[in-house]
Specification:
The chain has 2 helices and 3 strands, in the order βββαα. By secondary structure, it is an alpha+beta fold. The chain has one domain. Strand 2 and strand 3 form a beta hairpin. The two termini are 37 Å apart. The relative contact order is 0.07.
Length: 81
Amino acid sequence: MTDSRNTIYIEATLGFYDAKSGTETFTMKTISLLSRCIGNSGLNGLDTLLAHSIAIELKAMTKLIGREMNEENRRSVHQQL
């Protein structure tokens, strides 16, 4: 939907904007339109889908980081905690 490298969040407007052109990419208007189109049940389903997608990505990153760290690095990290 948006490219995180070229998108900025502006808290005052509760929206994401293209950093170069300044055009709106995702704002409360988008949420309102989605709500009217798919309703609360649809928004709930979309939220669940996105949450699962994020969880899968985090699990994959954790697995990758775990493989990359050797035993010495692991001990060092645990000592710092």
